[in-house]
C-alpha cells in the first residue's frame, strides 16, 4: 500500500445509501416542532390564554392585531407540536391546551440543567479552594518610570527677581 492510499479520506465520506451518521445531531422532530412553536411570542401568549381554559380561534386572535387566518396559522403550528387540540362544532373551532409535549421539552432542558449545575458546582468548589488557600504576598508593582528630559539646559543659574 502506498503512503497516499494509507492516508486517503475516501472511506470516511462514503456511507450506505440513504444514511447520514452525525451523532452530534439530535434528530427529534417532536422536540423540533415543540421549540419551533414556543419560539414565537404570539403562540406563547396563546398558550397562556389556553392554560386558563378552552378558547375559540376568535378569542385567541383578539389580543393581537392579526386576522383569523393568521391566528389559524399560529394554531396549526401549535397543533403540529401537539400543544393544543381543536374541536370543531359547526363553524366554531374551540381549542384546548394539551401540555403533554411540554414535559418532553422540560426533560430535554433538564439534561442541560444537570450539565450546567455540575459545571457551576465545580467552579464554586475551585473558587472556594482558592479562597481558602493561604495568601501569598503579591510582588511589589514596578516603580513608575520617569522620563529623562532629552533637552539639556544651557544655563544652570536661577534667576532672581528684584
Explain what this protein looks like in three dimensions.
The chain contains 7 helices and 3 strands. With 162 residues, the chain is mainly alpha-helical. It has a domain of 80 residues: Orthogonal Bundle (Arc Repressor Mutant, subunit A). The protein is elongated. About 4% of the residues have low confidence.
Name a few traits of the molecule.
7 helices; 49% helix; three-stranded antiparallel β-sheet; mainly alpha; 162 residues
Counting DSSP E segments of at least 2 residues, the number of strands comes to: 3
What is the strand content? 5-15%
Please give the count of helices: 7
Question: Mean of residue pLDDT?
Answer: 81
Please name the CATH topology of the domain at 19-98: Arc Repressor Mutant, subunit A
Could you state the order of secondary-structure elements as H and E?
HHHHEHHEEH
Distance between the termini: 102 Å
Name the CATH homologous superfamily of the domain at 19-98. Winged helix-like DNA-binding domain superfamily/Winged helix DNA-binding domain
Shape: elongated
Order of strands, widest sheet: 1-3-2
| CATH class group of the domain at 19-98 | Mainly Alpha
